[in-house]
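Minutes, methods subgroup
Present: GH (chair), OT, SY

1. OT presented the first of two proteins processed in the latest run. Sequence and structure tokens recorded below as shown on screen.
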Amino acid sequence: MSENNTVSGNGQKRPAPRNGFKKGRSGNPGGRPKGLAETVRTLVGQDGRKLVDANMLLAWGSAEDRRVFFGESVKVQPKDRQAAIEWLGERGWGKPIQEVNSTLTLDLGPALDRITRFLADVSAARRAAALPRFPQPD
């Protein structure tokens, strides 16, 4: 039986994948293609103004303004408008900080008791080791 077999949700064994990632190897060894950012800036403009204009039109532009800008009729659904508004907001002011409220309660009593007993035992052992040993009378 292979060590790489895994158990599926129904309890049956299934064979290990043949083309799985190898240990210590990246799943994306080439990384992002070199020059991609420069190509985008060349097509869009160094300051990203075309991206902002496009999103402004998607968010608030009229059908005619979108047709002129995009060169074709572009229907915009409410979700598209919302996505464009979020995109503009995140680029203009950054993504909002997500606050997380949590309460963590730790009961350290038992752990502190064990640590205290351990330290007392160590201290007693050190004292006992440091005292000279005299033969006990019979």
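2. SY then presented the second protein from the same run.
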Amino acid sequence: MKRLGWLVLIATFVALTASAQGSAGTQNSITSMLKQQVVLYGKVQVMAAELMPADKYSYKPTPDVRSFGELTLHIAMFNNEMCARLTTAAPPNTSGLKGSTSKEELVTALKVSFDYCTKAIGALDDSTLGQPAGGRFFGDLDLTRGTTLLILGEDWYVHYGTQALYLRLNGILPPSGLIMSASGFFYFRGRLGGDMPPSASGPTTSSH
């Protein structure tokens, strides 16, 4: 799972490098990176949710962990909760959703949560990172906008890794697997806005 996460982070680095070639300033280097990451992780996590068949949304690797549907809802709710600390805009309402809700509704909730985070992070610059974000994390960390962004970035990494594991346990190649089965990182970045190739929609025996 760590390797999958690193592949996504490397893809993020490639995207950032390409973007930086057209940018003269680095005064907002931290928020600029997070603005790139929220788009990339949003796309691969939504793709992962779309790849899992509807009848597998109840799948649990072991009885005491979340089902894939519960995981999808958890990601959406976590995004909404944390990004609400970065903006005055009200977060999307997920109160009527459960892990057993239909795949279509859960995927929509996930997309909406990343859209919400994209807008919230898009309005930030590095000069605001020390401002209080309200609340505490695990009861002992006073959140600033900067620490909120760090927590979000870490959880995007972990959440995608978990999605990838669930997919592979069901014989499905996760989005980051496209990096290893196609022509490199730039192919992967290009495919994010288009259709999935056939190799991504069925079982795989790839060891990557």
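Chair's summary of item 2: The helical segments are 2-20, 29-51, 68-83, 103-122, 145-169, 177-181, 185-191.
Next meeting: continue with the remaining queue.
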